[in-house]
Structures are given as structure tokens and as C-alpha cells.
Amino acid sequence: MATGWFAGEGDGFRLLGTRCSACATVFFPREDHHCRNPACVGGELRQVPLSRHGRIWSYTDSRYRPPSPYVTDAELPWEPCALIAVELEAEGMVVLGQAVPGTTVDDLAVGMEVEVVPGVLHEDAETTWTTWHWRPTGATA
């Protein structure tokens, strides 16, 4: 789990970003130390929940097992997954993430609306590594 990157459950699940009080720029992942906008002299950084919805900007599939620190069971065969770059509705920024399990690139199209939902990256007997997934809503541009 990427601590501080998301919070909530169900319809309350959100990715968490940071907004600079001086320039209003929003960042993801969150920033705790300084404004990343090079044109800004800096201001107070406040945590903000990001849009739940966005539109697919680009997508592809992951056909190989990623290297560490990605957590996976090397004993099990690798299951490809769809990776989606989503332009968030209000912020206009692009956030990358996996599609919900069972979604393939054949199910996706640029401009399709998706929503962020909680997901499981990997689990074993002791630990569940949580993440976010993008789930198509069925709406198209």
C-alpha cells in the first residue's frame, strides 16, 4: 500500500493529492514539503481528495512481471493486466493505474469514462497490499 495516496471505501474512496495555497496547483502523488510548480514561490500544502471520475487518455497491457518493488508471487504464472492513464475530471492531470481485474485492453477506448475504486495489488497469508483500480463506467466521449 502506498501510505497517504488514497483513503476511504466504496463511493467515498478517493486518491489523495496536495494543493498549493499560493498557486492552486494540485499534485499526485501528494507532496508534503514544497510546491513542485517551478513558477511558484511556494505556499502551504493541503491534502485534497481528487476526482473520482476521469476519461481514458491512453492505455496498454502489461505482458511481463514487473521487477521489485512490485509485489507478486513468483511461483504463480503472470496474469497480464490493463494499465490506464486517466485524465481526472476536475484537475485535468493524468494518473496511471491498473484496470479492475477482468478488464482487458479490448474493453477500453480513449475518451471512455472511468472511476477510481479500491483494489488489491497482492495478498498472502499475512498481508494484503491495497491500491486503486480504474473501472469503466460505460460512458464514452
Low-confidence stretches: none
The total count of strands amounts to: 9
- Mean pLDDT equals 89
Distance between the termini: 32 Å
Q: Radius of gyration from the CA trace?
A: 16 Å
Helical content, roughly? under 10%
Strands of the biggest beta sheet: in what spatial order?
Answer: 5-6-7-9-8
Please give the structural blueprint.
Elements: E1 6-7, E2 14-20, E3 26-27, E4 45-49, E5 53-62, E6 81-88, E7 94-99, E8 113-123, E9 128-136
Parallel strand pairs: 7-9
Antiparallel strand pairs: 1-2, 2-3, 2-4, 5-6, 5-8, 6-7, 8-9
Descriptive overview:
- The chain is an all-beta fold and 141 residues long.
- The protein has strands spanning 6-7, 14-20, 26-27, 45-49, 53-62, 81-88, 94-99, 113-123, 128-136.
- The strands form two sheets. The chain has a five-stranded mixed barrel with strand order 5-6-7-9-8. Strands 1, 2, 3 and 4 form a four-stranded antiparallel sheet that branches.
- The model has no long low-confidence stretch (mean pLDDT 89).
